[in-house]
Design brief:
Blueprint: H1 2-11, E1 13-15, E2 19-21, H2 23-27, H3 32-46, E3 53-57, H4 62-72, E4 76-79, E5 91-97, E6 104-110, E7 119-127, H5 131-143, E8 146-156, H6 161-164, E9 172-182, E10 186-191
Parallel strand pairs: 3-4, 3-7, 7-8, 8-9
Antiparallel strand pairs: 1-2, 5-6, 9-10
Helix pairs in contact: 3-4
The structure holds 1-O-pyrophosphono-5-O-phosphono-alpha-D-ribofuranose and xanthine (XAN).
The site of xanthine has 8 residues, from strand 2.
InterPro entries: PRTase-like, PRTase_dom, Pur/Pyrimidine_PRTase, Xanthine_PRibTrfase
Subcellular location: Cytoplasm
GO molecular function: xanthine phosphoribosyltransferase activity
Length: 193
């Protein structure tokens, strides 16, 4: 997605520890036109698989996921990181590591909104190690739903998440790919795959 690649080149900041800051377009401020285009791109890619649900995780996955769900005209469900008292039991749970805040987080999805009739694509903001997507796909498996594909806005190829998730045997589609980044070279970013 050329507009996203361009925005990352203009606004991306390399942080210590191999982190990329894109708060101005993905993780704090959101740009409606850019976000809408993300949704269109995901929808174009995954529509042939006929998903009936988009799944993501709060908080930064919600914007690209709802953009994709609007294009596909299907519901979007987000895994919650704290179980609210409104959540109907049984709930599917998994544990993942918050990359930007540190520590383990428990994830919850109610069986009210995910079950055997669902054909699901998962959308998130970052694909790094793949740990978060692994946790989400574990919950899809628990629910009996069918996983059709995975989509992320930014892939950090050098963290090898795509390889770590290869055993799932589903298409992985990303919109921008960070090949590498360093103070010397800057952010080497190309269109996703
Ligand atoms: O592929 P991984 O190594 O799992 O990294 C990707 C995950 O890391 C971030 O989550 P985080 O909880 O840090 O941030 P958020 O609350 O902004 O979604 C990001 O939103 C992805 O969900
Ligand atoms: O804002 C972010 N920048 C990153 O580099 C990253 N990796 C995983 N999750 C991330 N979030």
């Amino acid at each position: 997605m050329d507009s996203l690649v361009q925005a990352i080149r203009e606004q991306g900041v390399i942080l210590p520890g191999g982190f990329l800051k894109v708060d101005g377009l993905v993780n704090h401020q959101l740009l409606p036109r850019l976000t809408r285009e993300m949704g269109v791109r995901f929808a174009q890619h995954f529509a042939p698989l006929r998903p009936n649900k988009v799944l993501t995780i709060e908080v930064s996955g919600i914007a690209p996921a709802i953009a994709a769900a609007m294009e596909l005209d299907v519901p979007m469900v987000y895994a919650r990181k704290k179980k609210p008292l409104t959540m109907k039991e049984p709930a599917f749970t998994a544990s993942s590591v918050s990359r930007t805040k540190g520590g383990n987080v428990d994830l919850f999805i109610s069986s009210e909104f995910l079950g055997p009739d669902d054909r699901v694509i998962v959308i998130d903001d970052f694909l790094a190690s793949g740990g978060t997507l692994r946790a989400l796909t574990g919950m899809i498996e628990l629910s009996g739903a069918t996983l059709l594909g995975l989509g992320c806005v930014v892939e950090k190829e050098f963290e090898k998440g795509r390889e770590h998730l290869a055993d799932l045997n589903v298409p992985i589609h990303t919109l921008a790919n960070i090949v590498r980044m360093s103070e010397a070279e800057g952010i080497v970013v190309v269109a996703g795959q």
